[in-house]
Design goal:
The protein has one domain. Helix content is 78%, strand content 0%. The chain has helices at residues 2-8, 16-43, 48-70, 80-103, 106-113, 116-127, 134-151, 160-182, 188-209, 216-242, 245-248, 254-267, 273-306. It is globular, with a radius of gyration of 20 Å. The termini are far apart.
């Protein structure tokens, strides 16, 4: 999109590594702010299904000019079934995440959301036939141990919001796995467009049941939510496109810091020490998994390039 080139132009003179780090941290701020607006809309009386629907309306409004400019050819696909599955997982994950943000502390929800790469590793074994060796298995186990530090089943009462945060991470991993499968034959613009188009009606139906006319103040929050979501994901995507994931991913931890600050200032939330320790353990295991995946990918490329091709 032309506006994305304009947005990133001021950074073009900076070193690439600094650009990626800055984009990631600022993107984390916008996504943390998104959580704050979701919480504020819920506190104002809006049902989570209506919040999800309005979030998708805002996202579609941003996408619409690009769709009109690109034309219908961008939507051509031979894999509508997989798109539908990806959209379903994306919708369920979004509903679970929004519900978690409205029920538990922002920092706790983000900390539990860091388990998504761990679930992704398990799904890659089953559906992508990836070979996972002992070190990655150990990282998965350590990551789940970190989640147990936060949840502490048996020591504290498990809240529905905490379950929803973990479920959101698991279904997000399913959605990401679908994207990996789609990316083998589909273009990135088509994946983005179809996902938004499929989730829109899915989120509309339950929203109609709980619908109340938004107030002017709520509409301001909806607009802010759409801006934060769009900018956050745009900055994330750009950061990952210009630098290695193993370099960029550690900066995602700033999302927890921003969420904790927003929760403290605006909602009087104070995450306990177990949330910080558990989040650090989960995040460390997720970063290690990403590093191992990157190394495995490099080894596969070297093996493929060194294998003689048949005439």
């Amino acid at each position: 999109m032309s506006y994305s080139r304009t947005l990133f132009k001021p950074l073009s003179t900076l070193p690439v590594a600094f650009q990626a780090a800055l984009l990631m941290v600022v993107g984390c701020f916008f996504l943390a702010a998104l959580g704050g607006f979701i919480r504020e809309l819920s506190n104002s009386g809006m049902h989570v299904f209506e919040i999800v629907f309005l979030r998708n309306v805002a996202g579609f409004a941003v996408l619409l000019p690009w769709l009109m400019k690109s034309g219908p050819s961008v939507l051509k696909t031979n894999r509508p079934g997989l798109y539908l599955v990806r959209g379903l997982f994306g919708f369920v994950s979004m509903v679970a995440w929004f519900y978690a943000v409205t029920e538990i502390q922002l920092a706790e929800a983000v900390a539990l959301n860091f388990t998504a790469p761990i679930f992704g590793t398990l799904l890659a074994i089953i559906f992508l036939r990836e070979v996972v060796r002992l070190r990655r298995w150990a990282a998965v186990i350590v990551g789940f141990a970190g989640a147990m530090l936060i949840l502490r089943p048996g020591a504290i009462e498990m809240s529905p919001g905490a379950y929803a945060a973990v479920f959101s991470a698991a279904t997000m991993a399913c959605s990401i796995t679908c994207v990996k499968l789609l990316s083998r034959t589909e273009s990135t613009p088509a994946i983005v467009a179809w996902t938004q188009i499929i989730i829109m009606p899915m989120s509309c139906l339950p929203a109609l049941y709980y619908w109340t006319m938004p107030t002017m103040e709520q509409l301001y929050y909806v607009v802010a939510m759409g801006i934060c979501a769009t900018l956050g994901h745009l900055l994330f995507t750009k950061a990952y496109s210009i630098a290695d994931a193993t370099y960029v991913m550690p900066f995602d931890f700033s999302r927890l810091v921003f969420s904790a600050i927003i929760g403290f200032i605006f909602f009087a939330q104070e995450p306990d020490i177990f949330v910080w320790i558990g989040a650090a353990v989960i995040f460390g295991s997720a970063v290690y998994i990403a590093m191992r995946e990157a190394k495995a990918g490099q080894e596969s490329e070297k093996l493929a390039s060194s294998t003689p091709k048949a005439n």
